[in-house]
Amino acid sequence: MLDPLAEVRSDRDPATDVYLTGTVFLDIIFTGLDSAPVRGTESWARGMGSSPGGVANMATALARLGLRTSLAAAFGDDMYGEYCWDALSRGEGIDLEQSRTVPGWHSPVTVSMAYEGERTMVSHGHEAPPPEEPAPVCPPPARACVSLLEPGKREEWLAHAARRGSRIFADVGWDDTGRWDPDDLADLQHCEAFLPNAEEAMRYTRTDCPRAAARALADKVPLAVVTLGSEGAYAADGRTGETAEVPAIAVEALDPTGAGDVFVAGFVTGTLADWPLADRLAFAGLTAALSVQEFGGSLSAPGWVEIAAWWQHVKSYDDQDPAALRRYAFLDGILPAAARPWPLVRAVPTIGFRRQ
Q1: Which of 77, 160, 175, 222 is the 20 to 30 Å CA partner of 192?
Q2: Through-space distance between the first and last CA atoms of the chain, rounded to whole angstroms
């Protein structure tokens, strides 16, 4: 596997590139629905897949890009939990030393239905019981940590990790309180980069323009990155004043599940590899665009072979804007030779098949 950090590694580096923690779900994804399910009727989906979801989407995306990834999560001791543990540890090479199996606790489950370029999800689960021995406040040494900020909640481990030199990247979820008060995101003070979507960014900054929102957020965090959906992404560096914007790649979207996680993983990869800001932004957008062409969150995360196959394909065909493709010329100096044709199909329809 290509190591994107090969040129910046040294003997003094920690063994882990990226540490993250959160809840792992078993995702069951239905695709090929012509419309939303209608009450009182039965809907048939043309496609189905199962995979670890939740924080596993991000962990898988990071691991497939060649980063040494450590995940701390609780796993049920049911078949779903066993499947998720095996898929992440043996299938993706993710370090689960910080994770635990909880006897008698059933795995959280999400059913996701993709239609008309959007998704609807139904989830069920209970909070995992606390471990018999308190988890250490400070995670293992890592180049970077990724966290989902929750309004009004502090994560003590983030402060410890930042003091030990980890670079903190943060996303944020929807604020159900409706406050959208940036003071509720106290852990931003520990972050190097904050990556909300356009709606979240504008609400937190009381602006009506996502680019203005990114510049306002750059006063609170060194680097603000705002995703613009079909328009691409925009970033503002509060330390240098540099800004960058890249358009989105034109793709036929099958399922947007996990695309935000894949975007963050791509941006973290480029940042740790010391790429220019515009290249990092373009690479993150590309990995997210490739992910929506397959169904599932972790299932769809692209690796270097998939990225190389796409680059080889678009240079041979005229189905992309040539001016937009010039933005990705930096890939020629990074990518391995593509070993598989484009497009790629990787999803497995059921957890019932066991690995041989």
Answers
A1: 175
A2: 22
Cis amide leading into 341 (omega within 30): no
Q: What is the pLDDT of residues 170-221, one digit of tens each?
A: 999 889 899 999 999 999 999 999 999 999 999 999 999 999 999 999 999 9
Whole-number Cα distances in Å, 73 to 22, 97, 101, 156: 6, 10, 9, 17
Closest to 280 in 3D by CA, of 4, 8, 3, 6: 4
Q: Quote the pTM value.
A: 0.92
3-class DSSP state of 48: strand
CA distance 169 to 193: 5
Compute how many other C-beta atoms are within 10 angstroms of the C-beta atom of residue 9.
Answer: 12
Q: Which residues of the chain have pLDDT under 50?
A: 344-345, 347, 349
Give me the residues paired with residue 224 across strands.
Answer: 194, 236
- C-beta separation of 312 from 9 below 8 A: no
Q: Are 59 and 89 in contact (CB under 8 A)?
A: no
φ, ψ (nearest 5 deg) of residue 331: -65, -25
Tell me the three state secondary structure of residue 346: coil
Q: What is the DSSP string of 194-241?
A: E--BHHHHHHHHT-S-HHHHHHHHTTTSSEEEEE-GGG-EEEEETTT-
DSSP output for 121-170: EEEE--PPPPPSSPPPSSPPPEEEEEEEE-TT---HHHHHHHHTTPEEEE
Tokens encoding 145: 């940590």
DSSP 278-290: HHHHHHHHHHHHH
Contact 157, 29 (CB under 8 A): no
- The structure tokens listed for 195 are 């990556």
Angle between helices 277-291 and 304-316 (to 10 degrees): 90
Q: Which two tokens stand for residue 108?
A: 């959280």
* Residue among 214, 37, 208, 41 nearest 116 (CA): 37
